[in-house]
Amino acid sequence: MTKFIGTGVALITPFNADLSVDFDALERLVEHNIANGTEYLVISGTTGESVTVTAEEKKQLVSFITEVNKGRLPIVLGIGGNNTANVVNEIKSTDFSAIDGILSVSPYYSKPTQEGIYQHFKAIAEVAPKPVILYNVPGRTSSNMLPETTLRLAKDFDNIIAVKEAGNNVHQYLELLRTKPKDFLILSGDDDLALGVALAGGSGVISVIGQALPKEFSEMIRLGIAGKAKKAYDIHFKLMPIIGLIFSENNPAGVKAVLNALNISKSYVRLPLVEATNYLNKEIADALKTLGKS
Questions:
Q1: Mapping DSSP to helix (H, G, I), strand (E, B) and coil, where does residue 64 land?
Q2: If residue 217 lies in a helix (H) or strand (E), which one and from where to where?
């Protein structure tokens, strides 16, 4: 479980102008994170535009990233959805030889009860060959996995080892931290709250902005986990403007604009997402200049 303490990054899927996958940019992105302090990589999360990436492209992304990574960092693979049988079948048919964990989103659109969420993840835990990180993101799923459901799953299944909590709800974070089993990891899915969660006893973050600014963001989280609040907040206050900007229109268009400004990848996204506006690109450029990144 120590593999997943610190900063994981939810990698974007870079695209070329024709919206094919830009593997050259993806290699630059992976190397950028390995060289600058990221603790682990997350493939095929929300930020990776997983809903518009085909099954064949997903296999190509996993193969390419694992080849570039060469075992240097742990890798987490996103496998989730609102059709439990399909999720179970994908897990059964996936090669996990180079994968260290599974990130699985709480069922979206269907709006199941808490018992339905429990039974969904029970089915996943029973077939998962790798540790499972639950992913609660009610802003996208329209269904909040309550702390009692998360903790029931944590207590009932040894291979459910963490939750990526992304409800932007401080009280829910604190309730999870207060009542969790000793070795269960609470990971922030909210970049703006990640430091506070770490200082309160959380184990880290699966971050969006972290992939663009891995040196600063991962150091902030390490300081937070160590309880060094003053030094950690010095970094946090510097990063606050850019964190706010990348989520002001849509994710991942915001972080793709940052990565474009850093000459790591281009800004292209697949519909129904659209690229960051000229106004946001200018705001991001100004924020990066303030950070000494331009």
A1: helix
A2: helix 214-225
Catalytic residue among 40, 118, 135, 173: 135
User: Is the Cα torsion angle 44, 123, 169, 203 positive or negative in sign?
Assistant: negative
| 47 DSSP assignment | G
Name the superfamily (CATH) of residues 2-226: Aldolase class I (3.20.20.70)
Question: Does 53 have pLDDT greater than 90?
Answer: yes
Amino acid at 11: L
The tokens describing 206, both together, are: 């699966």
Single out the catalytic residue among 40, 58, 130, 164.
Answer: 164
Q: Are 52 and 270 in contact (CB under 8 A)?
A: yes
| Residue 164 a catalytic site member | yes
Q: From the CA atom positions of the chain, what is the Rg in Å?
A: 18
Question: Is 118 a residue of the active site?
Answer: no
Chain-centre distance for alpha carbon 271? 21
For the chain, domain boundaries: 2-226
The pLDDT assigned to 252 comes to 98
Q: Which tokens hold the place of 278? A: 């000229």
Calpha distance 12→86 (Å, rounded): 24
CA max distance for the chain? 50
Residues 106-152: pLDDT tens digits?
999 999 999 999 999 999 999 999 999 999 999 999 999 999 999 99
- pLDDT more than 90, % of the chain: 99
**Global pTM value:** 0.97
Vertex 201 angle, CA 199 and 204, to 5°: 80
Q: Comparing C-alpha atoms, which of 292, 199, 226, 216 is closest to residue 37? A: 216
Cβ pair 104, 80 in contact under 8 A? yes
